[in-house]
Design brief:
Layout (H helix, E strand, L loop, with lengths): L3 E5 L6 H6 L7 E5 L2 E5 L5 H7 L9 E3 L5 H4 L2 H8 L9 E4 L1 H4 L11 H4 L4 E4 L5 E4 L2 E7 L8 E7 L3 E5 L18 E8 L9 E2 H11 L3 E5 L3 H6 L1 H12 L3 E3 L4 E5 L3 E4 L8 E3 L2
Parallel strand pairs: 3-4, 4-5, 5-6, 10-11, 11-12, 11-13, 13-14
Antiparallel strand pairs: 1-2, 1-15, 2-3, 7-8, 8-9, 9-10, 15-16, 16-17
Helix pairs in contact: 7-9
């Protein structure tokens, strides 16, 4: 069984965290054997990928969930890296219509030139499925100010599924779309008692976890008010209320799915948490 490791290169989200870089906005790198996929390469993705020893030249796929700069800003640079400096048509670019073609006055955010550098384009809308190595990625409905936004379900052989909500507001049965995933990554901009239209707060995250009943939860994509409230306290609240193990992601954190789920902090002195999920 080949483990799947998720590198949280950036855990910030929203305009003010993005422009201040109070938390990085570098997205998430998936590593499964020789396959590497980068999800939502916002500002800093190039720098912090290299800093973490995850060269963008090793990428097999770049996935952009929607057309907002904290999710797409470094996508074109990653495409150039993935295509070996534009010398080979290589890799997959997966994104919704707004990112690739523009939609309703939003986008596009990846140029036609860069789209021609990849081997394959995958247009993402709810239910669309594509593969990168042995990983199967399926687009999931979201509800955001970019109406083409999608979340993801990622299936790895023998390891179960990972869910990633991207930016979304709550809607009925949202949790059902991620039912039974082993790890659910919730983009949670706001803490309890501070709702934000078309985004998730901890209160909505609680409803989703109760519906989905995942093996464990990781909160990420924090706005300023969440950072001021303390993401660790919000994750602890979720775990206490639902009984589902929950962690607040930190820049540089890793979660590995193997026989167990292992959560490793960015510093050598950080204690690894083993979750039986």
């Amino acid at each position: 069984m080949i483990p799947l490791t998720l590198h949280f290169l950036g855990t910030g989200g929203g305009r003010f965290v993005m422009v201040t870089q109070r938390r990085r906005t570098a997205g998430i790198r998936l590593v499964h054997g020789d396959t590497q996929v980068h999800i939502d390469p916002g500002p800093g993705a190039l720098v912090f990928s290299n800093w973490a020893g995850l060269s963008p030249q090793r990428l097999d796929a770049v996935v952009v969930s929607h057309c907002h700069p904290d999710h797409y800003c470094d996508a074109e640079v990653f495409v150039e890296a993935m295509s070996r400096g534009t010398t080979r048509r290589r890799g997959v670019l997966a994104a919704p219509r707004s990112v690739l073609h523009g939609s309703g006055g939003i986008g596009p955010s990846v140029s036609a030139y860069h789209q021609h550098l990849v081997e394959r384009i995958e247009l993402l809308s709810p239910g669309a499925l594509f593969e990168a190595g042995e990983l199967r990625l399926t687009a999931v409905k979201a509800n955001h100010s970019d109406p083409d936004t999608v979340g993801l379900r990622i299936d790895a052989p023998g390891l179960g599924a990972v869910g990633y909500t991207s930016d979304t507001g709550y809607f009925p049965n949202l949790g059902d779309l991620y039912s039974g995933v082993r790890l659910l990554i919730l983009c949670t901009m706001r803490p309890r008692g501070a709702p934000l239209h078309l985004h998730l707060s901890t209160d909505e995250a609680l409803e989703i976890v109760e519906q989905a009943r995942p093996g464990c939860v990781a909160l990420t994509h924090f706005g300023m008010r969440m950072l001021n409230a303390g993401p660790d306290a919000e994750a602890a609240f979720l775990e206490d209320e639902t009984g589902v193990p929950a962690v607040a992601a930190r820049d540089g954190m890793r979660i590995t799915l193997g026989e167990h789920v292992e959560v490793s902090g960015p510093r050598k002195k950080d204690k690894t948490r083993i979750i039986e999920a």
